[in-house]
């Protein structure tokens, strides 16, 4: 380089300098992308509330402390970590030592204004319960299940058997919007997704928001049959048997019946329009009778009301192979009016 011209030294220096600058810029871009992705996967603070995106069980790092606050950090037990890893969960919050008062306060404070899917885990048996909570109702679900025992009976029996200290309360996912009647189906769909993926042992119902698939155990069936025995029926029937009303009570009932206001014209009009007058024909085409209601037809020919309704749904309207019933409202409206008004004379 001593014998080379000055411009060669300068170009080498500038190229090395540009390479170093380019590498630094590339590393800065990578770091910024990583930070942004961590912010998006963790949480965004909006109006001092933690709002999480609705994910499809994407990978999210779980907390190994009982709370996200730095004040009272408690290490997550190894037993719970193994359960989380086996189930391949990515929880938002993990709460242990539920018998402590400060942990309950943390659950109350950190879940204010939030809604989502929660899990109650038995750390000894690895059984768990999954449920959903609407906006600002996560702590209510926690207290009803684990403290006041007003929730799942299976969880109640398990807590009494194993102790509250062997349970953990986990929030699996958060719903990003305020839960209303319109979007409540989305929250139930999210809960249903977790139920089908994790198949919890403590859940009786297999579908969120529905009793479909529930079957009574043999013990429950035996209790139901024992409750409807003849002795219980006779006991219920004898509660008011032989009792007589006092003359004052009879007089009060009589006065209320006599002073009962008459039916208004609007209600009478509704009854008139909602009744269904019918004509019953013999098989030879002669008229058997005209009736104001389906019940009157059933009484006249001594059959069930459902039989008349089934016959009206068919094209022929055949009843017991002896009569043909027809809806009068499809034939003559003036005649309907007269028959319907006869009902209220």
What integer value in Å does the Rg equal? 37 Å
Q: CATH topology of the domain at 78-198, which one?
A: GIY-YIG endonuclease
Could you name the CATH homologous superfamily of the domain at 78-198?
GIY-YIG endonuclease
* Low-pLDDT ranges: 34-74
* CATH domain class of the domain at 78-198: Alpha Beta
The fraction of residues in strands falls at 5-15%
Number of helices: 13
Known CATH architecture of the domain at 78-198:
3-Layer(aba) Sandwich
Number of strands: 10
* Percent of residues in helices: 40-55%
Through-space gap between termini: 124 Å
Secondary-structure element string: HEEHEHEEHHEHHHHHEEHHEEH
Give the strand line-up of the largest sheet: 3-6-4-5
Q: Which descriptor suits the 3D outline?
A: elongated
| Biggest beta-sheet profile | 4 strands, antiparallel
Structural class: alpha+beta
Mean pLDDT score, rounded? 77
Summary of the model, kept short:
This protein is 46% helix and 14% strand. It is built from 13 helices and ten strands. The chain has helices at 6-42, 78-87, 101-110, 138-146, 153-162, 184-198, 218-227, 230-237, 247-258, 265-274, 294-300, 305-313, 333-342; strands at residues 44-46, 49-51, 93-95, 116-122, 128-133, 167-174, 278-282, 287-291, 318-319, 323-327.
Task: Please write out the topology.
Layout: H1 6-42, E1 44-46, E2 49-51, H2 78-87, E3 93-95, H3 101-110, E4 116-122, E5 128-133, H4 138-146, H5 153-162, E6 167-174, H6 184-198, H7 218-227, H8 230-237, H9 247-258, H10 265-274, E7 278-282, E8 287-291, H11 294-300, H12 305-313, E9 318-319, E10 323-327, H13 333-342
Antiparallel strand pairs: 1-2, 3-6, 4-5, 4-6, 7-8, 7-10, 9-10
